[in-house]
From TrEMBL:
The lineage of its organism: Bacteria, Bacillati, Bacillota, Bacilli, Lactobacillales. InterPro entries: HAD-like_hydrolase_sf, HAD-like_sf, HAD-SF_hydro_IA, HAD_2, HAD_sf, PGP-like_dom2. GO terms for biological process: DNA repair. This is HAD family phosphatase. Gene3D superfamilies: HAD superfamily/HAD-like, Putative phosphatase, domain 2. It comes from Lactococcus garvieae. It holds the Pfam family HAD_2.
């Protein structure tokens, strides 16, 4: 199959930011006295945090309580800017340049907030390679594993699922891509123990994706 479009997740695919996110969240739970020991870091990878509060708070969950904890976390998180400048994954710029030269339509569909996606793209001068980016946290009522963000990306790119390659790393993201009907390649997780078994293929870096697509031409 010759793909016409590639849609990328961001955290864990373009930038190695998930361990930073995880550490900040763990520290927030510790300092706030919230017991999240029944969950593991991989449960949060690729998620939209507002959707996780019922699982975190369990019997203490109410909409009001979740809203307050969520705001408390946003205030806490703002104290620890993610050092995106240091976190670009190997081979990203070269692969995106090659994909662009070969005429692939490209977009980012991430669960991160819009300002975080924009910061990554601008910090590393990557915006030029993408037609647009979508934020699951800011723009969609239902987040990954719901396929809405990927269905919207494909519609906006003007391609069918059969013409689309999605590059992901998280369990939620892989499920979303498959539910959208696209082919999904997963950047191998060597840290969290994420369930990636639904992916169609595994890659170490975007350089692998570049080489695999070149071989299929």
């Amino acid at each position: 199959m010759k793909f016409k479009a590639i849609v990328f997740d961001m955290d864990g695919v373009l930038v190695d930011s998930e361990r930073f996110h995880s550490k900040v969240l763990d520290n927030f739970f510790l300092e706030s006295g919230i017991d999240a020991s029944h969950l593991t870091p991989k449960d949060f990878v690729g998620s939209v945090l507002k959707d996780m509060w019922p699982k975190v708070l369990r019997e203490d969950f109410t909409e009001a309580r979740a809203a307050q904890v969520h705001q408390d976390f946003l205030d806490y998180d703002a104290q620890f800017p993610i050092p995106y400048k240091e976190l670009l994954l190997p081979g990203v710029t070269d692969a995106l340049k090659t994909f662009s030269e070969k005429g692939y339509k490209m977009a980012v569909a991430s669960s991160s907030r819009r300002h975080e996606i924009a910061e990554v793209l601008d910090t590393h001068d990557l915006r030029q390679y993408f037609e647009f980016f979508l934020s699951g946290q800011d723009e969609f009522e239902k987040s990954k594993p719901n396929p809405a963000i990927y269905l919207a990306a494909m519609e906006k790119l003007g391609v069918e699922p059969s013409e689309t390659l999605i590059i992901e790393d998280s369990h939620y993201g892989i499920m979303a891509g498959k539910a959208a009907g696209a082919t999904v390649w997963a950047v191998k997780d060597n840290y969290f123990g994420i369930n990636q078994e639904q992916a169609d293929r595994f890659i170490e870096t975007l350089t692998d994706a570049k080489n695999l697509l070149a071989d299929s031409e």
